[in-house]
Each structure stands twice: as structure tokens, then as C-alpha cells.
Design brief:
Length: about 575
């Protein structure tokens, strides 16, 4: 490519970043808080305060106290979540410095929004030089218009950030292979270090990079080893002050925590599992990604078989994307690997699918141009680009419509392969997860009589509602109770409540939720989809209705018991 083409591509990439960032930032407040966010937002504020205290100490001539073990432990202790601090730090600094510019929701969710927007631009820069600008635009917009990815890009959690940083790290190693300079080795190492500072998924990146380098870029193995074994870990250590005073012990504790992480239930194909079957990642990715992206990603993998010299770079990139996708899904498929919350735990697969889809689109348009060049003596060859643009638009429109139709509940999106959200519900896939839908219910809650008591399940959701109360979004007189330690405690909680409320995340259902979900008539409901195909995302029932259903269930159980005797 000449310099003019490079500059044009850079301008397009900047435009993609600006559009993505503006779209995500302006819609950040449409998405309710998720279970993880209050923890991360609070820790982020604590981390940001440490930087403020550090500055004040330096101004006062004290550069020792902020780095003492008690101060670092107080400000940087990972607490119960045991997650690295990058996203939390960026969120805390965003809340402190950028709320005036971005608004409260976008400022506290800044890391996901910023990194995802960079990933969209990076996909264009990756694919456009290899398969053409339209293919590059298709890859970038495919990622932006994947409904599940679009939703996750709004949350102040770790998943969209690690997905973006994983792609950016692989992109940096591709540049290292191309230029073979220490400058790119440092950039790749820093990118890897930032990924390590985001989430444990980053530990899969060396497997991807080394496997690819052995196959396609052995000349960079030495520099890649320095980036992966020295620069990246150094960035990780420097960026997590909690490690400084006991690095070996605390790093070992960090790894051990995640190896022993408690199971989180998942509802899959009509059953609730502690650990879903091995095929969960592949199946759920297939039914929650727009079919056009899946089909073209499969075509993109065909680049691996293109061994002619003019296709060598395309082949190498396709191999890296394919290895990355395979590793992401393979490790998530292991028997003891956690598998829950849709594609959240293997979200790094989505940018790789989008990149392969761009490659696939490039192959399709290559043959389209060749056919146009042969048709009627090539009279229509000049129109091939316009036809390719029209094809890209046609294939992207279903994703755009899906994002718009499910907004802001894209976590409930399922594609046409399972009949959309309604078909997925019938086939036993989990309808929604993570608690964001409660934001929609606040207006209903605020209309309730004074001092209303709500029975909320699961118990963790109460922390979200308390957060809304403290933010002034939910009346403070409303009270919350939840599932007790025994069935009797739970029954008493229902008796003394006025309203029973739960999101339709079937893996979280208890003995109260299931019979209400199957047979109860909700007093309030939040639905997704047209009337004939609508699925409930959140239901609320009067306590009388809940008690009536529970009595029916108990009577049915007694009848079955007598029949068995």
C-alpha cells in the first residue's frame, strides 16, 4: 500500500472509532447495572482516590507513605473479586475526571466503551489492507453490530475490555511479525501486560501467539518471548500495586482463587447445570451471533488453505484468528471451566469471528469481481465495488435491526437459527442474565404504595436496588427481602412481602420463581419482542398470587406422594 492509501485507512479507522465511541457513550445510561458493576465501581473510586492522595503527598514532600504496605493494601486490595485493577482504575478516574464531559453512566463505564471502540477501528486496520476496504468495514461493523457484544461494551465490567485487549494484543504481534523491530516487541508486550491487568483470559494469549509464530513467523520468536515473558509480566506487576509487598504469595493467591472459583449455575437446553456440558460455548456462540457473520467467518477460515504466494499474508492472519478463536472456545469447553451468562466468559471470541467474517467477505467479493470481469466481456466490471458495498449493507442490516429491536436488552438476543428469543425460550436457553433489566422496572417500583416490601430473588439483586436508592433513582421507603436459609424462612419472607419480583434468568429460579413463571399471572412484566412472540425478561407478582401458586404446588406434591404410597 502507498502512503496515500495508508492515510485514507487511518482516517476511516478514526471515523469508526468516533462513531462507535459516540454511539456507546450516548446509550450508556440505557443499560441497567449488572451484578459485578457496584463492586468494580466502588473499588475504582478507591483506586482513583489513591492517585489523588499520591499527588497530594508528593506536593507535600512525602513520597514514602503512599507506597507503604498499609496504604497499598487499603487502596489496592482486590477484595472478594480477586480481579486485576485496570478496568477499575480507568472507571474510577473516569468518574473523577470525565463525568462533566461524558455523563455519569458513560464515565463510570469508560473502559469498556473506549477499548471496544478501539477494537472496532483496529479490525478495519487489520482487514482492509488484506481484503479491501469494504471487507475491513464489514469486519469492523460486524463486531459493532453483534448484539451480545454491543451490550457488553456498555458495562463497567471486565469482559468487553478483555475481548478488546485480546484482539489488540494479537494485532500488535502481527505487526511485530511484519516489522520485526524491538519497538513493536515493546508495544506487543505492553498490550499483553494491559490484558493481564484486565482479566485471567489474558493467560491464553501466549498460547495463541506462540502456536501461530511457530507456524507462520518463526523469525519473531525471540522478540515475542521477551514481550510475553518479560515486558508483559513487568507491566502486570507494576500496574497492580497490591502485589508489590508480597508478589509471589499474592500472585499465587490470585491464581488459586480462580482455580477454586465457586460454580455459577447456567440454564442450558432445559436443564440447570453447575458446569454446563463441553458443547455449551460453541452452541451458545452459534445461536447468539448474527448468522451472516457466522457464515462468512466459516468462509474466512478458508483463507488458511490459500497457499499461493499472493495470499501468504492473508493466510497468516486467518491462521492467527482461527487459532485465537479455537483456543478461546476450547479452554472454555473444558469440564471444569465456568460456563454461564451466555457468551460473557468467552467474549474474546467475538472480535475474532468478526475478523474472520471480514476475511470471508473479502473472498466472496474477490470471486464476485472475477465473475463481473468475465460477464459480458467485462462491461460491468466497474460496478463490482458498488455491488460489494450493497452486499455488505444487506448482510449487516440484520445485525443492525437485531441491535435496535432488542435495545437495551441485547443480552436476551438469539438469532434465527433457534427462532429468536421466543424460540430460544422454548428450546431451553436462558432468557436473560446479569440484572440489567431491573433498571426498566424502577418506574413501576416507584409507583408502588409507600413502605412496600418486595421479595427479590436471587438475594444478590438487592445490592443493585440499594445502589439505585442511593443514586436517587428508586424510592428509599421501599424494602427488600429475599430467599431464606430454609424453605420455612423463604415462605415467611413471601408472606410478609407485597410483591414478588425476579428477572427471567432460569438458572437463578428458586422454589418460588419456577411455579410462578410456569403458572402465575404477573402483575407487572417487562417483555421483549412483538406481542405474538414476546418473552418475559422480568416479572412481578402479588404475594397472594405467589402463595396461591405455592399452595397448588404443595398440594400437587402431596397428591403425588400419596399416589406413590
Amino acid at each position: 500500500m502507498n502512503m496515500s492509501q495508508v492515510r485514507h485507512n487511518q482516517i476511516i479507522a478514526v471515523a469508526l472509532f468516533v462513531v462507535s465511541f459516540a454511539l456507546l457513550a450516548t446509550t450508556a445510561g440505557h443499560y441497567g447495572l449488572t451484578y459485578d458493576e457496584p463492586v468494580y465501581l466502588g473499588l475504582g473510586q478507591r483506586h482513583a482516590q489513591w492517585f489523588a492522595d499520591l499527588w497530594q503527598s508528593i506536593r507535600g514532600g512525602d513520597i514514602v507513605t503512599p507506597f507503604s504496605a498499609p496504604m497499598l493494601d487499603s487502596a489496592w486490595n482486590a477484595g472478594k473479586d480477586q480481579q486485576p485493577p485496570l478496568v477499575k482504575v480507568a472507571s474510577g478516574l473516569g468518574q473523577r475526571w470525565l463525568t462533566w464531559l461524558l455523563g455519569e453512566w458513560a464515565a463510570m463505564r469508560l473502559p469498556s466503551i473506549l477499548l471496544f471502540s478501539i477494537a472496532v477501528a483496529a479490525l478495519f486496520l487489520l482487514c482492509a489492507p488484506l481484503w479491501g476496504r469494504i471487507a475491513g468495514l464489514f469486519a469492523a461493523l460486524s463486531l459493532l453490530l453483534m448484539p451480545r457484544g454491543f451490550a457488553h461494551a456498555h458495562y463497567g465490567a471486565l469482559d468487553a475490555s478483555i475481548a478488546s485487549l485480546s484482539l489488540l494484543t494479537l494485532f500488535a504481534f502481527l505487526r511485530l511479525a511484519e516489522h520485526d523491530t524491538w519497538r513493536w516487541a515493546v508495544i506487543a508486550g505492553v498490550a499483553f501486560g494491559l490484558a493481564l491487568l484486565t482479566k485471567l483470559n489474558a493467560f491464553f494469549l501466549p498460547i495463541m501467539v506462540i502456536a501461530w509464530a511457530v507456524l507462520c513467523a518463526r523469525h519473531m520468536l525471540g522478540k515475542a518471548a521477551v514481550a510475553l515473558l518479560i515486558i508483559g509480566p513487568a507491566v502486570f506487576f507494576v500496574g497492580w500495586p497490591w502485589l508489590w509487598h508480597a508478589p509471589v504469595e499474592r500472585f499465587a493467591g490470585y491464581i488459586a482463587f480462580h482455580l477454586r472459583h465457586y460454580p455459577v449455575d447456567v440454564f442450558y437446553l432445559g436443564r440447570t447445570y453447575h458446569y454446563a456440558p463441553w458443547h455449551y460455548p460453541g452452541i451458545v456462540t452459534s445461536v447468539t451471533t448474527p448468522p451472516a457473520a457466522l457464515l462468512l467467518a466459516a468462509v474466512g477460515l478458508a483463507n488458511i488453505a490459500r497457499v499461493r504466494p499472493e495470499h501468504e499474508r492473508q493466510q497468516a492472519v486467518a491462521i492467527l484468528l482461527g487459532i485465537g478463536l479455537g483456543v478461546s472456545l476450547l479452554f472454555s469447553s473444558l469440564p471444569v471451566a465456568p460456563k454461564y451468562n451466555g457468551v460473557r466468559l468467552f467474549l474474546p471470541a467475538l472480535p475474532l469471528i468478526a475478523g474472520l467474517a471480514g476475511a470471508g467477505f473479502g473472498i466472496v467479493t474477490h470471486y464476485l469481481r472475477a465473475a463481473m470481469a468475465r460477464w459480458r466481456g467485462g462491461r460491468f466490471a466497474g460496478r463490482a465495488r458498488w455491488l460489494a458495498a450493497a452486499l455488505a449493507l444487506m448482510l449487516l442490516l440484520p445485525g443492525l435491526f437485531a441491535v435496535a429491536a432488542t435495545h437495551p436488552h441485547q443480552l436476551a438476543y438469539y438469532n434465527a437459527l433457534v427462532g429468536g428469543p421466543a424460540g430460544a425460550q422454548k428450546k431451553g436457553f436462558e432468557t436473560i442474565y446479569w440484572g440489567g433489566v431491573y433498571l426498566d422496572a424502577l418506574q413501576d417500583f416507584n409507583r408502588l404504595p409507600r413502605d412496600t416490601t418486595l421479595y427479590i430473588t436471587p438475594a444478590g439483586v438487592v445490592s443493585l436496588l440499594v445502589f439505585y436508592q442511593r443514586a436517587g433513582m428508586l424510592r428509599e421507603d421501599l424494602r427488600f427481602v429475599s430467599t431464606g436459609e430454609t424453605p420455612s424462612d423463604t415462605l415467611n419472607a413471601v408472606v410478609y412481602s407485597d410483591l414478588v419480583v425476579f428477572q427471567c434468568a432460569q438458572s437463578e429460579f428458586d422454589d418460588v420463581s419456577w411455579p410462578l413463571y410456569r403458572r402465575g399471572r404477573p402483575l407487572m412484566s417487562r417483555m421483549l419482542g412483538p406481542a405474538s412472540l414476546a418473552v418475559p425478561l422480568l416479572n412481578g407478582y402479588t404475594s397472594d398470587a405467589a402463595l396461591a401458586v405455592l399452595k397448588e404446588k404443595r398440594a400437587a406434591s402431596d397428591t403425588e406422594g400419596q399416589a406413590a404410597q
